[in-house]
Each structure stands twice: as structure tokens, then as C-alpha cells.
Amino acid sequence: MYLFIHRKDLRTSDMRAFDYINRKHTQGIHLLIIDPILIGEGRLTSHSGRNFMAQAASLLFSYASAGKELHVLYGDPAAITESLLLAHPIEEVIVHSDYTPYSRQRDDQIGQAVRRIGRRWMPIADAPLADLEAFPAYARRAEPYKVFTPFYRMWGSFMLESYSPMGSTTIDDLSTVQEIDQSACHAFALPEAVSCALGGTNVEGSPKSLARLDRFVRERLASYGDARDAYANDQTSGLARFLNTGAISARSAYELTQGLHGSEAWIRQLAWRDFYLYQAMYHEDFFKYEQLADLSPLTDTNFKAWSTAATGIPIIDAALTQLNRTGEMPNRLRMVTAMFLTKNLLCPFTLGEQYFRLHLSDYDNTLNRGGWLWCSSLGYDAAPYFRIMNPAIQSRTHDPSGSYIRRWLPHLDHLSDKEIHLPQSGAIVDLKASRARAIEVYKTILK
Ligand SMILES: Cc1cc2nc3c(=O)[nH]c(=O)nc-3n(C[C@H](O)[C@H](O)[C@H](O)COP(=O)(O)OP(=O)(O)OC[C@H]3O[C@@H](n4cnc5c(N)ncnc54)[C@H](O)[C@@H]3O)c2cc1C
């Protein structure tokens, strides 16, 4: 018997672990653990928490539709694993690998517990599109890549030569254990708030993500490269929240678009996703970069105005309004608002990173960190510190009629296409002066 634990892989097909399990022909317990650490601090009711619960509800639905059993328990993952290992003749514990600091620590603890009891611990890589565990041997470099462009070149040839396609095993092919140890079920029962969150959500998951992808391919893929920054028209795939919870695999997104007109620009973005996952895997500093730079010249003075959409810079306030209300913000505006916070307002990037954690539906620790490091000119392959986006110019360039601002800040609708992008009277900073100050401050931070 095996134990398989779902984490950021909330789907029932194209799972590397399912292919592995299918070769063994044994029965197993399939488990989803709701980890209190990951849903604390208001996360359960946040946009990203609600998204996770929606995909988890969908996973339960997929198991039930296939006549299979998925058990859901609440508590410390190592303690739950240990209690099931002691109660069932489980030989092997199988998971998909995860690379964030918390998940590495959690998996060390589970792995130790599994080995202590004399069972096998089997993490399997699944999240990246390319096999990033095999990639370093292919790239044959003394040091991991730090810059995207050479990484992307090598990634492209690696994908051509060594891409490993979607797996064929689905939950229908596996045999799941119906009943598990009752004392574990009682000890790790879901609290009512979690049950309600899980039961009271719309079932989304793979069907919805595939429908989105299908629509994206039919209507937007061909023009994606040119139109992705025209944020007022919503031209991107909207798949991130499904990719990050694993409701859809990066492989299926790739295979459904590969070779189609316009796919190159889109697949390049999937390569950016792999680039950040690669950094999380191979660059120790990726998650502690703030400890390497002296960020003491930065301050949280204006953070509240930024987060409550009260800066007086229309595009910033519109983007934060959209985020606060819906959990969404287009990529270009994530860049503009992050640069504005870290440069013009001189706030530490960690404050914005933390804010996005609670507010983005598609929040992902690794991609979010990559984005914030890039915008704050820290980390590897970041935006040069002296190249600071001007929010008013960005707004005019990517949405000349200001329709995005008009949608989210209707009280500005009376302004002309020219006026609508400009800072309002009472704006909390002067764009030109704050830009010059940021360059001086970041020069000292980065020296
Ligand atoms: C400050 C900041 C914070 C960010 N935080 C997150 C986050 O928490 N979660 C998240 O998924 N993305 C994050 N991104 C990256 C990017 O903004 C989103 O992936 C994208 O907006 C999601 O929309 P989409 O699915 O329509 O993407 P599409 O444009 O359709 O792209 C397809 C996929 O490619 C990947 N991708 C696209 N752009 C990027 C990028 N710049 N970096 C890495 N991968 C990318 C995503 O997986 C995305 O779903 C952040 C970017 C910045 C600048």
C-alpha cells in the first residue's frame, strides 16, 4: 500500500506521481492535508485562500465522479503522515516536490518521520514544464543561470530534445482505499470554518481551466505577443490561478498551444515560470535576498496609501482597487504598482510581496517573489535600479483612452483621455522628484 498526498497538484490527470503509482499496481490512500500554517493569518478567506479551496472542492468532485476516495484531514502534515503510517501497512509515501522554504522544511519533517518508521519517502518532480532536475546536467554549467535570456536559450533546446510529455494515467486507473483509521480521522478532523470554506465554494478545477485555455487559444493566442500589455482588454489566459494550484498542469497548457500561431510569446511566459521555479530550486538566496541587502533607508510611511488605493496616481489606485475587489491585477500593472511602491514610495518590497500574498487569487510564493525582486532591482536579472517606470506614461502608452481607470475609478470618468492618466491634486508624491530620490537611495542599497 502507498500513501499519496496532494499539495499544489489539485487535479486527477497528467500527474507524474500517478504514472509512478500505476506501474506498481497496488492500492493506496489518497490524501489532501489542509495545513493550518498555510491558511492562517486570514488566508482562508483571502482571494488566494478562496481560490485554493475552490480547486480543492473540484478535486474532491473529480475523485467522487470517478468513484474514488480522497481523504481530507487538517493538521500538521508530518503528524498526520506518521499517524497513518502507524495505522496502515503503507510501504511508501509519495508526493510531488515543492521548493519554497516552508515546503522544504515541511517535507524534511515528513521525510524524517517516514524514514524513522522504516518506510520509503518518494518526492517526484511535477510542477515545472521542463524537467528542471535533469536540466543542470544538460546545461553543463558550473553555476546555475542567473539571467533569463541564456537560461531561456538553453531551456528551448532542452525542451526540443528532452521534453517529457503529459502522462496518461488518470485517477480512473488507480485503486484508492475507502476507509482510513478512525482515530486519525477524529484527531485531524476539519474545523467547521474549513469544512464550510470547502463545501461552500464553486467547483472550478480542470474543466474550468480547460474551458479558459480553449477560449484563450481560439480568441487571443494569435495576438498575445502584441496585446498582452493592453490590460484594459483582458488579453491574457487567466490560467495562473489554475497552474499555481495544479488544477491544470503546465504540460497540458503547453501541449494544447504548441505550434499554434502566436504560441511562442505565450510559451516564453511559461519559461519565465520555469525560470523562477529553477531559482527557487538552485539559488539559496532567492528567498532571503532581503537579508543580503541593507534595506534600512526604506520605510513603510506610504504603504497604507498604496494598499488602500489612495495615492492620487490614477493607474496605481485603479490597479489596487481591482486587486482589492477581485483578487486580479494584470501583469503590466503588477510591475507598475510594484515599482511605484518600492521606488517612488521607497517601501521595502517585502511589504508589497506580503500584500499580494493575501490579495492575489493566483498568488504563488515563488512567482510573486520573482516579480517583486525584479521590480525592486534586487536579486538576479532584475530591472536596473535607474530604469523606473513612470505610472502616468505607462498608463497613457498601454491604455490611451484610460478605459481601465474609468472602469475602476468611475469618479474620474469625466476627465479627458489626456487628463485621466495624470497625478491628481493631492497626490502623495511628485513623480519626478520621487524618481530622482529613488535612484539615489537604490544606488546606496545596491553598492
Ligand atoms: C510584482 C509581481 C508579482 C507577481 N506575482 C505573481 C503570483 O503571485 N503568481 C503568479 O502566478 N504570477 C505572478 N506574477 C507574474 C504574472 O504577473 C502572472 O503570472 C500573470 O499576470 C498571470 O496572468 P495570466 O495567467 O493571464 O498569464 P499569461 O500572460 O496568460 O501567461 C501564462 C502563464 O505564464 C506564466 N507567467 C506569465 N507572466 C509571468 C511572469 N512575469 N513571471 C513568471 N511567470 C509568468 C504564468 O504561469 C501565467 O499563468 C507576478 C508578477 C509581478 C510583476
UniProtKB/TrEMBL annotation:
Co-factor binding comment: Binds 1 FAD per subunit.
Co-factor requirement: FAD
Enzyme Commission numbers on file: 4.1.99.3
Record flagged with keyword Flavoprotein: yes
Domain Photolyase/cryptochrome alpha/beta: 1-129
Any GO molecular function: deoxyribodipyrimidine photo-lyase activity
Binding, FAD: 224, 266, 269-276, 362-364
Pfam families referenced in this protein's UniProt entry, alphabetically: DNA_photolyase, FAD_binding_7
Lineage top rank: taxon: Bacteria
Matches recorded under InterPro entries: Crypto/Photolyase_FAD-like_sf, Crypto/Photolyase_N_sf, Cryptochr/Photolyase_FAD-bd, Cryptochrome/DNA_photolyase_1, DNA_photolyase_N, Rossmann-like_a/b/a_fold
Keywords from the named record: Chromophore, FAD, Flavoprotein, Lyase
PANTHER family attached to this UniProt entry: CRYPTOCHROME, CRYPTOCHROME CIRCADIAN CLOCK 5 ISOFORM X1
Homology family: Belongs to the DNA photolyase family.
Protein name: Deoxyribodipyrimidine photo-lyase
Protein's organism: Paenibacillus endophyticus
